[in-house]
Fold each of these.
Amino acid sequence: MADAAAQAPLTLLKIGGEVLDQPELLDAALRAFAALPGPKVLVHGGGKAGTRMAARLGVETELVDGRRITSPEMLEVAVMVYGGLMNKQVVAKLQALGVDAAGFTGADLDLVRAQRRPPGRIDYGLAGDVQAVRAGVLARLLREGVTPVLAPLTHDGQGQLLNTNADTIASEAACALAGAFAVRLVFSFEKAGVLLDVADPQSLIRRLDRAAFETLAAGGQIAGGMLPKLQNAFAALGRGVQAVYICRADAVAQLGSPAFEGTEIRNGAPPA
Amino acid sequence: MADAAAQAPLTLLKIGGEVLDQPELLDAALRAFAALPGPKVLVHGGGKAGTRMAARLGVETELVDGRRITSPEMLEVAVMVYGGLMNKQVVAKLQALGVDAAGFTGADLDLVRAQRRPPGRIDYGLAGDVQAVRAGVLARLLREGVTPVLAPLTHDGQGQLLNTNADTIASEAACALAGAFAVRLVFSFEKAGVLLDVADPQSLIRRLDRAAFETLAAGGQIAGGMLPKLQNAFAALGRGVQAVYICRADAVAQLGSPAFEGTEIRNGAPPA
């Protein structure tokens, strides 16, 4: 870790939410990402393009408890849209911005190997739970000046591609790289960060530690999709990631400066 | 070239034609490819999956002089199907066979930069003519034990993906790598090789040099799609590639052995 601290920090940026459906915000996010110093990794989610493509192809989206079930037909759509169209468009744009980007799924270079989620109460279909990230290969690419762009897809090592949540890929990759780099993990989307009132950008929480999070969660002030995201964030901090940020995608341009608008998450004292 | 000769030859295999539509032949081809010693590169064409997907999405395939015009909608289909589905399925299968494969378009790592074909008598739309292959980056990956899997897509360096013929990508990559490796270039498909009578596998031409080719072409015995493929082959031989093979995809298993079934193409004396 002494070595890691001596280098420029590595930024792992996850772009999700509606950013991928808003061309101007996506372009602003990619420009901000391109301008970041130091090694970096981009992870993108799917946005609504996958759902739209599934509808055009007559592939039904099945949801159980708000979670998408990945049928073989839906996996094909995900591989086409996330692993193909979205990933390659982002790579081509980053190349135009002078970033030596390379797009990967978890199958490429065996970067992210997963296990098909065992069917229990719910059979999630072709959904993969991350087992291993090949951090050494990612680190080699980064040292060579390459910027990996990861699609939310993994494989089982036996020829089967699997659908995996982009937040999970982002935090697993961040934790795996924490042994070789000082890592900051950024979850970006279309909102300003963690808000006490989702309708009011002025209610942005600028700093959050574990104790404050526990208090807010217990009081019901943080709920919904933000809960697993923050649990994810604290888990990453517990596994060596130096700081986690949640912000609007274009706020990445101010990352590390006092002008940064967003939520910075660091481990405070552990909860009593 | 002395250095190149000292190493195991590099095999650049292009899989095309109907192989991608025939799962058993594709699997046999990938197994044969996986078993090849030495550094290797796979280039895949599109097969009919792109045409089928375009039909499902109501995207019209426009042909002029037998050549596909790449509309923006058709490019999206190509990026989804060739750059996404097909590329990642091949990568996942190769990984399962123990090959450290990584799938790329020409945009990834700026591997194959192209220029949009200038509209003349025909406007080919978003079709790219290859300008530069980053052979140094490919060679570095190969030395690291990586097997690149190239989709038939390029980019213009300004953020635009382009559609490029897979045969062209294969021969351009082979020629670019000929400075660092002894390269054999294999065009594989569902037929036995160059046939004097396309309906008769027994009419396979086992060896072809330029003089014989000129004679057969002048006599009309080689025609149709095989003509540009062979012109391509001789052009590659003139640019440093050591040998070109045209064969059935599963015959790759016998490449370099006396049992090999296919057409071996080498430069003979130049035509008078």
Amino acid sequence: MSEPRSAAAERGREAGTSAGLPVVGIVGGGQLARMTHQAAISLGQSLRVLAASPGDSAAQVAHDVVIGDHTRYADLAGFAAGCTVLTFDHEHVPSEHVRALAAAGHTVYPAADALLYAQDKRAMRERLSALGLPVPEWTPVGSAADLTRFAEKVGWPVVLKAVRGGYDGRGVWPVSAPEQAVRLLESGVPLIAERRVPLRRELAALVARSPYGQGAAWPVVQTVQRDGICVEVLAPAPGLDPDLAASAERLALTVAGELGVVGVLAVELFETDAGLLVNELATRPHNSGHWTIEGSRTSQFEQHLRAVLDYPLGVTAMTAPAVAMANVFGGPAEAAGAPGLDERLHHLAARWPAVKVHLYGKAPRPGRKIGHVTALGTDPGRVRADAAAAAGHLTGGQQR
Amino acid sequence: MSEPRSAAAERGREAGTSAGLPVVGIVGGGQLARMTHQAAISLGQSLRVLAASPGDSAAQVAHDVVIGDHTRYADLAGFAAGCTVLTFDHEHVPSEHVRALAAAGHTVYPAADALLYAQDKRAMRERLSALGLPVPEWTPVGSAADLTRFAEKVGWPVVLKAVRGGYDGRGVWPVSAPEQAVRLLESGVPLIAERRVPLRRELAALVARSPYGQGAAWPVVQTVQRDGICVEVLAPAPGLDPDLAASAERLALTVAGELGVVGVLAVELFETDAGLLVNELATRPHNSGHWTIEGSRTSQFEQHLRAVLDYPLGVTAMTAPAVAMANVFGGPAEAAGAPGLDERLHHLAARWPAVKVHLYGKAPRPGRKIGHVTALGTDPGRVRADAAAAAGHLTGGQQR
């Protein structure tokens, strides 16, 4: 940390933690902040949340909530004043504000230089390429000519991606011919094009890194997407070659170290016949790590707090041989007359008494991610089936 | 529940849960409420807390906090108005207020009739005796003559207990001669006397019961007291005869059923050469169940919420063969110049990276219970040593 520990503790006392502990502020009030607050409680903390609205997922459950706009520097600076360290629920704070906060003397983890690679896909691709790390073939594109030239090299279809702002399948467009991209190219949105990689499956390597430089890796998981949105996570990735798993962990720890990440880093990976390729980075707790709440001795949320507080990191061993997480979405049951969420939760508790439920306090509109469930056991197929069935039920009677 | 589920959900919506779930209110803002809020977050809930002061343990971390006096009916009734169901962090709400809340149409779990047996040791002893359950020989005492008559029957010393208000060793007085009890007997405090039982050790049987009547028991644990205060809990109780363990679980489920408890019930037991005797009851989550947060698939806090919400109960299987919990107290390290709590937490994380810490947000005054730690593993001796050492360190450099 940039100030003596005793001074940090003193600021903690001023900011209201009666035990004299430092205060962590998180920018953004989504479910990641909600679950980070839940972990913070054990550490004697009460997470300070900058939320856009009082109804935000974390704002519903945290005591110390400030309503503000994460794109306004004045709001960020006012929020930071009471915090020992600042961290993020999302990547949407402008880099220049993150830099200005650090220049004003605030401790911000991850720092702007690291956060950039989760914000800007072009910068991420350039940096990983420069480090010699495996990424899909890619190029920046500004015109149909750029796109055609690239596609003639790697073959159609190619994948166009917005350099900034993509999330959960948004900002990603598979394109089979240049005319499909005309409007996108004319929109002025900065884009990169990537080779569409033939993949066996998607994996994620989750690690954490402290300011001291300590690193810790969880077992590599398989992520299952539908329409570009993660629906299931299987830990550990079933049948993954141990050498490939070890190299994925090393790769993620290398990225965390080289990019100077402090906190949790999720590295989304493609497993291909030719080996691993890095798809995306997230410098925060990530959907691919929700299974760690029950499935690891240290959850990604506690570990993120340990890291940004510069505490030594916790043990990442699994608590069961097989863990499966499935996301819960608002579904067709929201239609009039269908059983409400409370009724469905009641049924879930009866049918799957060992499945752990996490609801985010979000109104269950169709397609909206409103929670997740986790199943633990010894048989990977069984826990996957249980998690999927329970999530499908909670989503609204769907059995996947 | 006393009203249709859809009406409950409607009140939940009015009270602000965006997902339309029922609202649980808890009377009391101590660490039990704090940890119950933490569990509530997963269920899509945000616990509503009636705290005596904004600095209370739970009030620091919950969003929906009402400051009020749990002995004033107006405060209780105002608090209850926004809640689907009311429950308790402690036993100190007057029975007549609990009855009045129920009469006014509020759902209160545990109900006054069940709560009474955690409030009033005489009523508890009478009821358990009437049910034929094993309790130490006892009698109400109002005078030195009563005391002498009882002691001549069971032998000195005997244990005097305040009928109401005892806690953590307070309200309990071992007495070896009638003259030692003169001032106590003259004080007018209602008392019972109990035979001082020669015990092998203390155990606790923790169960939960839903309004529907479903029961669930965790493995029986050993509790280790010092100066009448629980310092360690070992799960499962090491070397406990399986038949005795089974009978302790049955006994606790019987008590829960006969007394109509809804929620968690802790039955503190003496293990003697002649079998088990019931020492105390608590109709709420209890220090002897803190190990369940990481040590069981369903924690006592989640289970208490499931019970009072009339959800089916969760699985109580252990997550590891051996779990040990040790309480953390404010200690000598609070002296000037000694390392602060943040520094000690830093050291703990480095030395015991697998130990889980729970701090309650309380200023660490010497002797005050400020948190607990939990160790999980396969070797009961090792987890006990780790938990004790980590707690001793956090308490302030003491190694127990």
